[in-house]
Write a structure and sequence with these properties.
The complex is a heterodimer of chains A (293) and B (530).
Chain A lengths: L12 H6 L1 H4 L9 H19 L12 H5 L3 H48 L1 H4 L4 H17 L5 H7 L5 H37 L16 H16 L1 H4 L1 H25 L1 H29 L1
Helix pairs in contact in A: 3-5, 3-12, 5-7, 5-8, 5-9, 7-9, 8-9, 9-10, 9-12, 9-13, 10-12
Chain B lengths: L2 H4 L7 H14 L5 H31 L2 H18 L1 H40 L8 H9 L1 H30 L5 H27 L3 H7 L4 H14 L1 H27 L5 H27 L14 H29 L4 H32 L9 H5 L5 H21 L6 H18 L7 H38 L3 H20 L1 H13 L1 H7 L5
Helix pairs in contact in B: 2-12, 3-5, 3-14, 3-16, 3-17, 4-5, 4-14, 5-6, 5-7, 5-9, 5-12, 7-8, 7-9, 7-10, 9-10, 9-12, 11-12, 12-16, 13-19, 14-17, 14-18, 16-17, 16-18, 16-19, 16-20, 17-18, 18-19, 18-20, 18-21
The chains are: A mainly alpha (293), B mainly alpha (530).
Chain lengths: 293, 530
C-alpha cells in the first residue's frame, strides 16, 4: 500500500516549491481527443436513437418504451458513449484539480513565506511591519476570495449524457474565472511580500503580472446562442433545437477545454521563476538580517 | 493581523477529504468488513423469512394441508388465504411475530453494523494499522445509541413519504366510486410534496450516524447535530449528496444499457457499490462531519497520489494478494481438525434442507410449480438467447452473485450462527424442491444440471456456512463466557471468516464460468431443452 501523503502536516517552503512540478503540470493537448470522442459518440448515439423510433417523442410526449427498451445497437453506443464520457470527465477532473492544487499550494507557500517573515519581524525592524501587515491583509483577502470547486463533482456532472456538456461549459467558465481571480489576488500578496523584503535591505524579487483571462465573453456567447437556439424550436421543433444546442454547447466546450489546458501555462511558467526568486530573497533576508543583528 | 486570525477562515475541502478517504480505504481494507456485515444483516433478515417459509410449508406438508393451501393461494391470492380460518389461525400470529422479529433485527442489527462501520472510519482516519478486532469493539461500543438513532432518523426522514404512500394505498382501496377516485387523485397530489419533504430531510439528516460516533450523542440530539452541520456547510453537504446520487444513477444506467446488449453487470456493480463506493463515500461523509467540528483545524494542503493509476495498476495486485491469503486461510480452515464439527453441522444443514425441500415438493409444491407452467426438462431460455461472447460475462455475474451470498452467509454467523445455518439449509431446500420426480424427469438429468458447477459451488457454500457457524460459536462464547480470551477468539474467528470468504472468490469464479459456459452444453447432452 502507498501512503497518500507526499508532504507532511507542516510542509516547508522548499518542499512547497518543489511540489510545483506536480501541481502545475502541463496537460498534454492530445487529451482533447477524449472529450472529442465523447462528443462524436453521443452525437452518433442521438442519430441512432432517433432513427430507431425516438422520433415518436416529437409532439407525442416521451416514448417510454424506447427509453426503457433501447435497441442493442443504441444501447451499445450508449455504453461506448459512457466510457468516452468517463474519459472526458477525467480531463475535466484533471483541469479543475490542477486549478485547485495550484491555488492551494500557492496559498500554503505564501502562508509559509509570511510566517517566516513574521517570526523574524522583531529582527526585521519597524519599517518592515507596515508592508508585512499589508501582505497579511492581502493574503487574508486571497484566502477569503478563493473557492475550491470540487473536481470530483464537476467531473461527475460532466459525465451525465448530453446534459453533461452544459455542466462542462459551466465548469470551464467557473474555472477560468477562479484562475483569473487567483492571479489577481495572489499578485497583490506577492507585491507586498516583495516590498517587505526590499524594506529590510534585500534586492527582493522581480514581480511581473501573469494574468489569466476569464473568458467571460465566451461564456456569455454560449448562453446567448443557446437561448437563440432554444427559441428556434418554433421552426426546428423542440428536439431539433435540443440537438442544435448540444452541437453548439459541445463545440464551444471543446474549444474551452483547449483554452483551459493552455491558458494557465504562462502563469505556471511565471511561478517557476517567481518561486525560485522568492525563496532566494527570503533566504537572503534571513541571512542578511541575522548578520546585521 | 496574526496567522492565528487566519485560522478563523477554516474551510472543508470535499476533494481533499474524498481523496484521503480513498487512500484510507486502500490502507485499511478492514473498513469494508462492516459493509460486508451490512450485507450479512440483509441475509439475516432474509433468513428469518426463509426459515418461516420453510417451517410453514413443512408443517402444512406434515399435516397434509399443503396442497389445499397452494390451491387456495392460486385461486384467491394472499388475501384469500388470510381470510380462510383454516390457514389464518396459523398465518396471522406467524406473520405478526415475523414482522416484529424483522423490525427488531433490522434496528438492533443495523445499530451494531453502523456503530462498527462509522466507528471504524473514525479509527481508520489517522493510525497506521487497524485490526479486525476494531469491528467488534466499535460494534459493541455504541450499538444501543446507534440503533435508537437509526430508528428515529428513519422515522423522521422517511415518515412523510411513508404516510403519503399509505394514504394512496388506503384511498386506492375505495377507488370504485367517483368520490373514491377524487380521493386517490387528492392523495396522489399530497404524496409528491410529502416525498419531496422526505428527500429534503434526507439531506439534513445525512450526518446522523457520524454524529453518534464522533460526538457521542444519540436520538434527537444526533439528528439536531446533523441538521446543524448540514445547514452550516450546505455547499459541501449538497456536493456529497449530488455525488452520491450521480454515482448510483450512472451505475444504474450502465447496468441497464449493458443488459440490453446481453452483458449482465448487476453483480459487478453491486460489488463496486458495496466494497468500494459505499465505504469511501461513507468515510468521506464521516470526515466532513468530523472536520466541521469547531475544535478540528482545517485539513492542511496535501498532494494525493493519482487515484486512477492506483486503481488500474496496484489495486488488482493488492486484491489478488488478499485472495491468495484467503485461499491459504481457507485451506487451513478446511483441514483444521477443530473445525470438523462446524463442517459436519453445515453439511447437515444442507442435507436437512434437501430433505425438507424434497418433502414439501412431493407433497404439493411441485404440483403448484407445474400448474404455474414449469416445464420439466426445460432449462432457462435466457441462456439460449444470450450471444456466445456474453456467456463469460454471465459467468462472472453468477460468480459475483454467489460470492456475495457466501460472504453474507459467512459473516451473518455473527448472529449466533443461526442465520448461516438457515441460509445453507435454504440452499439445500431449493435443491430438494427441484429434485422431486415431478420436476426432474430423471436423476441423471438433474445431476447433469447441477453437478458440473455444483461440485465446486456447493462445497464452497457449505464452507462459508461452516465458517459462519464457527463465528456463531465464537459469538456465543463471547456472550456467555465473558473474558479477554473469548473476545480474542471472536476477533480471531472474524478475521478467519473474512479471509475464508474472500478466498472463496476463485472457486466461485470457476463455478460461475462453468455454470454459464459448460453446464448448458452438458444439460443439452442429457436431454435438456432451452
Amino acid at each position: 500500500m502507498t501512503s497518500p501523503q507526499v508532504v507532511n502536516q507542516e510542509p516547508s517552503l522548499l518542499a512547497l516549491v518543489q511540489l510545483r512540478t506536480k501541481t502545475d503540470a502541463e496537460i498534454p493537448i492530445v487529451r482533447l481527443l477524449l472529450p472529442l470522442a465523447s462528443y462524436l459518440l453521443w452525437a452518433i448515439f442521438a442519430v441512432a436513437w432517433w432513427s430507431t423510433g425516438a422520433s415518436g417523442i416529437v409532439g407525442n410526449g416521451v416514448s417510454a418504451s424506447i427509453l426503457i427498451n433501447p435497441t442493442p445497437l443504441v444501447a451499445g453506443l450508449g455504453v461506448l458513449g459512457l466510457a468516452a464520457s468517463a474519459a472526458s470527465s477525467y480531463v475535466v477532473f484533471t483541469l479543475v484539480n490542477r486549478g485547485n492544487e495550484h491555488s492551494s499550494r500557492t496559498r500554503a507557500l505564501l502562508l509559509c513565506a509570511l510566517g517566516s517573515l513574521e517570526t523574524r519581524s522583531g529582527r526585521l525592524g519597524q519599517q518592515a511591519l507596515l508592508p508585512l501587515n499589508s501582505a497579511e491583509e492581502s493574503f487574508y483577502k486571497l484566502v477569503r476570495g478563493e473557492r475550491e470547486r470540487s473536481a470530483v463533482l464537476w467531473a461527475l456532472l460532466s459525465l451525465i449524457p448530453f446534459v453533461g456538456w452544459a455542466f462542462l461549459a459551466v465548469a470551464q467558465w467557473r474555472l477560468s474565472r477562479d484562475m483569473a481571480k487567483h492571479g489577481r489576488l495572489e499578485g497583490l500578496v506577492i507585491e507586498d511580500v516583495d516590498r517587505t523584503l526590499r524594506t529590510v535591505g534585500t534586492q527582493g524579487f522581480p514581480v511581473k503580472h501573469a494574468p489569466i483571462r476569464s473568458h467571460d465573453a465566451l461564456g456569455i456567447t454560449i448562453v446567448i446562442v443557446s437561448i437563440i437556439e432554444l427559441l428556434s424550436s418554433i421552426v426546428l421543433g423542440f428536439v431539433g433545437s435540443l440537438v442544435l444546442i448540444y452541437l453548439t454547447v459541445g463545440a464551444f466546450s471543446l474549444f474551452w477545454i483547449d483554452l483551459s489546458i493552455t491558458d494557465p501555462i504562462f502563469h505556471f511558467h511565471y511561478h517557476s521563476q517567481l518561486e525560485a526568486d522568492m525563496l532566494r530573497a527570503l533566504q537572503q533576508a534571513v541571512n542578511g538580517v541575522g548578520g546585521v543583528a | 493581523m496574526s496567522r492565528n486570525a487566519l485560522l478563523g477562515l477554516k474551510r472543508i475541502f470535499f476533494d481533499r477529504i474524498f481523496q484521503r478517504s480513498f487512500w484510507t480505504w486502500r490502507k485499511h481494507p478492514a473498513i469494508i468488513i462492516p459493509t460486508m456485515l451490512g450485507s450479512a444483516l440483509q441475509l439475516i433478515l432474509q433468513s428469518i423469512l426463509t426459515l418461516v417459509l420453510m417451517l410453514l410449508l413443512t408443517g402444512w406438508a406434515l399435516a397434509g394441508s399443503l396442497s389445499g393451501f397452494l390451491t387456495e393461494y392460486s385461486n384467491a391470492g394472499l388475501f384469500g388465504v388470510f381470510q380462510d380460518p383454516a390457514f389464518s389461525i396459523t398465518l396471522v400470529p406467524v406473520v405478526a411475530v415475523t414482522v416484529v422479529a424483522l423490525v427488531l433485527v433490522a434496528v438492533i442489527g443495523g445499530g451494531y453494523v453502523y456503530s462498527a462501520e462509522y466507528g471504524m472510519y473514525v479509527d481508520a482516519w489517522n493510525p497506521d494499522s487497524l485490526p479486525v478486532r476494531s469491528v467488534l469493539e466499535n460494534g459493541s461500543r455504541r450499538w444501543r445509541p446507534m440503533a435508537w438513532t437509526l430508528l428515529l432518523s428513519n422515522i423522521i426522514t422517511w415518515g412523510p413519504a411513508v404516510i403519503g404512500y399509505l394514504l394512496i394505498i388506503a384511498s386506492a382501496a375505495s377507488a370504485t366510486s367517483t368520490a373514491g377516485l377524487v380521493a386517490v387523485i387528492a392523495t396522489a397530489s399530497v404524496f409528491q410534496p410529502l416525498l419531496f419533504a422526505s428527500l429534503i430531510l434526507a439531506v439534513f439528516t445525512v450526518y446522523t450516524y457520524p454524529a453518534v460516533v464522533v460526538d457521542r450523542v444519540s436520538g434527537l440530539r444526533a439528528i439536531r447535530h446533523s441538521f446543524r452541520i448540514a445547514s452550516h456547510n450546505l455547499g459541501i453537504t449538497l456536493t456529497y449528496v449530488i455525488i452520491r446520487i450521480i454515482f448510483q444513477a450512472l451505475l444504474l444506467l450502465v447496468v441497464l444499457l449493458a443488459s440490453v446488449i446481453g452483458l449482465p453487470l448487476t453483480s459487478l456493480i453491486t460489488v463496486v457499490l458495496s466494497f468500494v463506493l459505499t465505504p469511501i463515500l461513507h468515510l468521506t461523509k464521516t470526515m466532513i462531519y468530523y472536520h466541521a467540528g469547531p475544535s478540528v483545524p482545517e485539513m492542511p494542503f496535501q498532494l494525493s497520489n493519482p487515484i486512477w493509476q492506483d486503481i488500474f495498476r496496484r489495486l488488482p495486485r493488492a486484491a489478488w494478494l488478499k485472495i491468495k491469503m484467503g485461499l491459504y486461510e481457507g485451506f487451513r480452515f478446511v483441514i483444521g481438525p477443530r473445525n470438523l464439527p462446524f463442517h459436519i453441522l453445515s453439511t447437515l444443514a444442507f442435507a436437512l434442507g434437501i430433505y425438507m425441500g424434497y418433502y414439501v415438493s412431493v407433497n404439493g409444491v411441485a404440483g403448484y410449480f407445474l400448474s404455474l407452467g414449469y416445464q420439466p426438462g426445460h432449462g432457462n431460455s435466457l441462456l439460449a438467447q444470450l450471444p456466445l461472447p456474453a456467456l463469460p460475462a454471465l459467468g462472472v455475474d453468477i460468480f459475483l452473485n454467489n460470492w456475495l451470498v457466501s460472504i453474507a452467509t459467512g459473516l451473518s454467523g455473527l448472529g449466533f450462527g443461526a442465520p448461516s445455518f438457515t441460509t445453507i439449509m435454504f440452499n439445500g431446500f431449493i435443491l430438494g424442491v427441484l429434485v422431486a420426480p415431478q420436476l426432474s424427469p430423471s436423476l441423471t438429468m438433474f445431476f447433469a444440471a447441477i453437478l458440473p458447477h455444483g461440485i465446486i459451488e456447493i462445497p464452497s457454500f457449505v464452507l462459508s456456512g461452516s465458517v459462519g457457524l464457527r463465528l456463531g460459536y465464537a459469538a456465543l462464547k463471547s456472550k456467555f463466557r465473558r473474558g479477554p480470551e473469548s473476545d480474542e477468539y471472536l476477533s480471531k474467528t472474524l478475521r478467519v471468516a473474512v479471509y475464508v470468504v474472500v478466498g472463496l472468490a476463485p472457486l466461485f469464479l470457476i463455478a460461475g464460468l462453468i455454470e454459464a459456459d459448460i453446464t448448458p452444453f452438458i444439460m443439452r447432452m442429457f436431454g435438456w431443452t432451452f
